[in-house]
Design brief:
The protein is α/β, with parallel strands linked by helices. The chain is built from twelve helices and eight strands. The structure holds 1,4-dihydronicotinamide adenine dinucleotide (NAI) and (2S)-3,4-dihydro-2H-pyrrole-2-carboxylic acid (A1CAB). The site of 1,4-dihydronicotinamide adenine dinucleotide has 25 residues, from α1, β2 and α4. Pfam families: F420_oxidored (PF03807), P5CR_dimer (PF14748).
């Protein structure tokens, strides 16, 4: 390793966004917020798992689904109250009545009508957090009562295991205290960045869609291992544990300021060794261009959906 590649061993990072910080809801002396999760699919389900494992009491959560069968399955899985629209026409309105924080977790095209349907049932101080791609603050605020606090967010599914990352864009009526409540809640299961709305499409391209890029890389690594003669289970575990280990190592070093991704990569590449050949192969096959195009495509699609929904209004 050359001197510019040298890196020190970091301690455990302690900074904003790390789970396990003081001041989380649910700790002694703090009243945990009451939470409503409207829609309990991949994303809201991941947030719910992360919150229940860290900072929110089961009795303080009410969730909703469309079908009764899904409501029963999710209620059993998470040990919470889940109301189904199929059985209770007012399920979403009922779920939000006592809530301090309301997560809107349906597909983008359903967010505005969902917000409109609960507008009159929300407590005036309740903060509404949309997890939807592409739905901007103007659309959200326009669907709710004047003055209702709103935060646009872009989370990712590793929140379910306490290792997510979330971008938050506070709306006009979200006070510092509202933002702090949501930030503290989500910091119990991931890193949180408060950003400007102009940055959210780019953030979506990196961290919102990004877990899929890591899973795709793992799929391809495992497939390549099988082609080299490994059995599928071994190849899949080698790929998953390698991405997990590299990710944790990179986060620790980057946050401690001891090494960045490029330095860590170079430290694996022995001169004229195996990894150097692999990185050369990546470069010959256009790896950097492919990643750049993928992030750009996700960010552009987010902006495109915003335009589609705005013109459909
Ligand atoms: N899946 C992901 O990794 C991420 C998703 N998002 C956003 O999260 C939102 C949800 O996406 P997914 O969870 O992937 O979709 P999903 O389809 O898994 O979940 C949406 C759920 O909402 C339910 N639903 C629809 N209308 C409802 C209603 N009126 N009342 C109650 N439940 C209702 C659906 O039955 C479904 O189970 C989207 O807006 C997406 O942009 C954001 C970041 C990452
Ligand atoms: O694919 C999507 O549109 C959503 C938003 C970011 C991740 N999943």
């Amino acid at each position: 390793m050359s001197s510019d590649d040298a890196y020190e061993q970091p301690g455990e990072p302690a900074q904003t966004g790390q789970p396990g910080q003081p001041g989380q809801p649910g700790q002694p002396g703090q009243v945990p917020p009451r939470v409503a999760m409207l829609g309990l699919g991949s994303m809201n389900g991941a947030i719910l798992s992360g919150l229940l494992a860290s900072s929110v009491r089961r009795e303080d959560v009410v969730a909703t689904t469309r079908s009764a069968a899904t409501a029963r399955a999710r209620a059993e899985e998470h040990g919470i109250t889940v109301l189904a629209e199929q059985e209770t026409a007012e399920a979403n309105g009922i779920a939000v009545e006592q809530a301090d924080v309301v997560f809107l977790g349906v597909k983008p095209h359903g967010i505005v009508s969902l917000a409109e349907s609960i507008a009159s049932r929300l407590r005036p101080g309740a903060v509404v957090v949309s997890v939807a791609a592409a739905i901007d603050l103007a659309m959200l605020e326009g669907a709710l009562a004047h003055g209702q606090p709103v935060i646009r967010s872009m989370p990712n599914t590793p929140l379910s295991v306490g290792l997510g990352v979330v971008g938050l864009v506070p709306g006009r009526h979200a006070s510092a205290a509202h933002t702090r409540t949501v930030q503290t809640l989500l910091e119990s299961c991931g890193a949180v960045h408060v950003i400007d709305e102009s940055q959210i499409d780019a953030l979506t391209g990196i961290s919102g869609s990004g877990p899929a890029y890591a899973f795709y890389l793992a799929e391809q690594m495992a497939d390549a291992g099988v082609q080299l003669g490994l059995d599928r289970a071994l190849a899949a575990d080698l790929a998953a544990q390698t991405i997990y280990g590299a990710g944790r190592m990179m986060v620790q070093h980057q946050r401690a300021g001891t090494a960045d991704a490029a330095q860590l990569r170079r430290a694996v590449c022995s001169p004229n060794g195996t990894t150097e050949r692999a990185i050369d192969a990546f470069d010959e096959h256009g790896f950097a261009a492919a990643v750049s195009a993928a992030v750009e495509a996700s960010a552009s699609r987010s902006a495109e959906i915003t335009e589609e929904l705005r013109t459909a209004e």
